[in-house]
Amino acid sequence: MLALRELQAAFADHLAGRDRVDLLALVSGDSIPAAARIAVHRHHLGQSLSAALAATFPTVRALVGEDFFGRMARDFLAGFLPTQPVLAEYGADLASFIATYGPAAGLPYLADIARLDWALNVAAYAGPVRRLTAADLSAVSSERLPAHHLALPPGTCLIDSPFPLPDIWRASQPDAGEGVVDLAAGRCRLVVLPGSAGAFFVSLSNPEADFVAALAAGSSLEEAAGVAFAADATFDLSKTFARLIRLGTFAALR
Amino acid sequence: MNSSRIAIAAALAAALATPAAQAQGMTEKCYGIAKAGRNDCQTDHSSCAGTSKKDGQTDAWVAVPKGSCEKIVGGKLTSS
User: How large is the ipTM?
Assistant: First the structure.
């Protein structure tokens, strides 16, 4: 007889896909065999978590199709059972799992698409946050503006990928046309932001993304501008700063 | 203030004065998702129906992704 803690661990192990024959001896097997009784739970867990992952990673799901996604989800959950009860927060590790998942090796962009899906999911559930407006900064004198620090609001993140994720994302939408995407289109720099009733992303130029990344890392506006100018001498600071404020990229001042 | 700091201060201040910065909201093309309510405790009722005695582990292995990935061409970045 297993102690309760061992019994629970064995049950979790079995649900995750690792057969535990020691469990079968402890389960009633009168009209329905013990193995079949436990299989119902394993099946239920797999279906529920696969469905949750498909809802959180719709673009990955569209790219690989239902069967492949279902199998990948089951392989994932064997190593990454949920550690908290909110299904919408399940799957933080899927992108890194995909990066080393052999069967997906032929789709080198898939892990980055999973990062984008996850970022959109996090942003969509980040909750309302007041964003910085141009009016908020009007109280700061222009001489002091360069030394100012700005933070990104919760749920906001930058994605840097060697693949054209926006093109791949669009081609995977239900209403996408027949056009093909050429991976040679190359690198993208995205900012993912909470939006009204959801989340959205926009493409940034390289110096724009360098500017935001430097601010996110704690640089002042002057230091961040320096990073962007070093990356591209034609960087338009005024236009970029106006665009980023309009998009709601920065958290309101505290 | 040195000259580069003055230029940066001027550029930032100019941004705050533009209509683009003052208009909050979307005036450019962006892409996104809409989410329904958060599903904290969703259960999959159909899989409990007792007809599902197998857990799917024995399904034939699906080696080939069959989705919109067929539209993505030119995957030379991995093999090189």
Answer: 0.78
